[in-house]
């Protein structure tokens, strides 16, 4: 069963979400909230949704200012995007769920786990980081400059950097689709720039000790956008602050698949997730 959710936040942002219940309506099915990265779209998760839906209830959404969702009046930062996510859980009356956040979505997921610890039963942090290092700072500052100077190059380079070269070459329509989404209006560029500012400003070092739910950190050694060393640092920070018997923090390296390994290696991504969930039960 698929339901579209159209809701408005207190500051006037209209959020469009998709709630897909598993076909068997099993009472044992877990609810998973999927939070995408810089692009902010629900569509990023489509391959994962198709694979997991037979087993779980899934929520995906366009973040404020992205796709079918409107911008609203609030300042866009990681804390606000976490509050938007909590707003959706409230609207859908989801009392507990697993949260999967990819890239910038992983920063949002960390903040959400601290904002509403009683609502988050488990956390999956995919290709994300605790604090932007010099590599991320340099890369995204260059991308932000390119955004206004040559929007088509911004879109094309983003697609090229997000996947392993051989995989993208074999799935070239993905590149073509990215080029059709070139942010060539001032409004689109403003939204992306403020999202880049938000991800660069995020620093989770002060709150990491407050994450007490089981946490799985995922990465890929060939990720050219968010280096795998940052996932190693993230899981080490989680383990250093671990409260005895409160949670586990585990790391998995896919080895290859690029930054968007949930798309390029969907089957393996879902297998790792479901195996980890089974271990928790």
Summarize the topology.
Blueprint (H helix, E strand, L loop, with lengths): L1 E7 L5 E7 L10 E5 L10 H7 L4 E5 L16 H14 L5 E6 L1 H12 L4 E7 L7 H16 L1 H12 L2 H6 L2 H8 L5 H16 L13 E5 L8 H13 L8 E5 L7 H4 L1 H15 L1
Parallel strand pairs: 3-4, 3-5, 5-6, 6-7, 7-8
Antiparallel strand pairs: 1-2, 2-4
How would you sum up this structure, described in words?
There is one protein chain. The protein has helices at 46-52, 78-91, 104-115, 134-149, 151-162, 165-170, 173-180, 186-201, 228-240, 261-264, 266-280; strands at 2-8, 14-20, 31-35, 57-61, 97-102, 120-126, 215-219, 249-253. It has 281 residues and is of the alpha/beta class. It has one domain: Rossmann fold (3-Layer(aba) Sandwich), CATH 3.40.50. Strands 1-2-4-3-5-6-7-8 form an eight-stranded mixed beta sheet, sandwiched between helices. α9 links the parallel β7 and β8. α1 packs across α11, α4 (134-149) packs antiparallel against α8 (186-201) and α5 (151-162) packs antiparallel against α7. The longest helix has 16 residues, at 134-149.
Distance between the termini: 25 Å
Q: Strand percentage, roughly? A: 15-25%
Uncertain stretches: none
CATH topology: Rossmann fold
Helix content bin: 40-55%
* Domain module tally: 1
Beta strands, count: 8
Identify the strand order in the major beta sheet: 1-2-4-3-5-6-7-8
Tell me the major beta sheet: 8 strands, mixed
Fourth-tier CATH superfamily name: Alpha/Beta hydrolase fold, catalytic domain
Counting copies of identical and different chains, the oligomeric state is single chain
The computed structural class is alpha/beta
